[in-house]
Amino acid sequence: MPVATPQLGSFQYVAETEVRQEDLDWAELVTIDLSLYHTPEGRKGLSKTLIDAVREKGFFYVKNFGISQQRVDRQFALGKRFYDLPLEEKSQYTPAGLDKGQFNGYVPAGRRIIDPETGLKDHTEIYNIPKFNGYFSQIHPPAVADHIKEVEEFARSLHTDVLDPLYVLLAIALELPEDYFTKIHRYEAKSEDHLRYMKYSKYTEEENKKVKNWSVGHTDLGSFTLLFRQPVAALQIRYHSTNEWKWVKPQDATLTVNACDALTFLTGGYVKSTIHRVAVPPKDQQHVDRLGLLYFSRPHNDITLSTIKESPVLQREGYTQNQFESGAHKVPTMEEWTFAKQTWQRTKGYQDNIAYRTATILPGFKEKDYA
User: pTM of the prediction?
Assistant: First the structure.
């Protein structure tokens, strides 16, 4: 049973934007209904929906995943409680190795320059909580520590109730044994999965006029990212098929999910890592902060990110080498890839310019400009 305490209170979401749909150009995304997962026929249909989604548009919704809205609301309330702490207190939980890719704990705002011309810095704060499997020791502020059992139960539920089914569906789509991906994403193994509370503090009207986006186009480095409904419209994705940027509409009682770099490497590019960014919200939402609740799933640290050879689908379609392999470069382990990309992402004082956005992360992998 979920662990719950009454001290958090309720969480009030901000109102959704009233800007007309035709003015925002919403993405048309499919929905994975996990209530259909429990029969062979249901899994087969969902697997087709999933693979089409991650190859064509990149993002998809998931509903009926068995986690109540009350539990989700409490996590948002906990995130707000953390960010209401004074900066001095939050900063005590910043990892010592942040500039070298460490990321569990608190990442303060203002580490990157989003407008090189004026020197405007980001307003984004992050608090990452790693797996509760014995490999990671992390001290939390009392605001979080008082509810840590509830946080653990919530994170584990995301793994068993959402991620495991998605990995089974992906395996079916690639004609692999159903446990192929769940075996390399076990909760008990060491991997850099983490739950995240993320806050985009509002900018002034003058600041918003200087920038188009609060974060530039990018891909996530792991397998799947889970994003809970966020009413402040700001998330945009770039369609794989047309390269058009589209807004992602908040949908009630759903998760928004995207595929990430590790799955691209493991499938030789067949599964496409989703390009996305956080844009300046519509004018009627620019006066509020944007609080996010996310979970990042990654393969075990010791998994080498070589293209899967056992998939008949990948063999038939000719997806037999990823970019490391095709260039005769060393294929990294998930741990090597994680900290190489995190080091690039967490570089203090970096500017959102072409030189940064096209940097070489590892031999064989050069970032691209997705702005």
Answer: 0.94
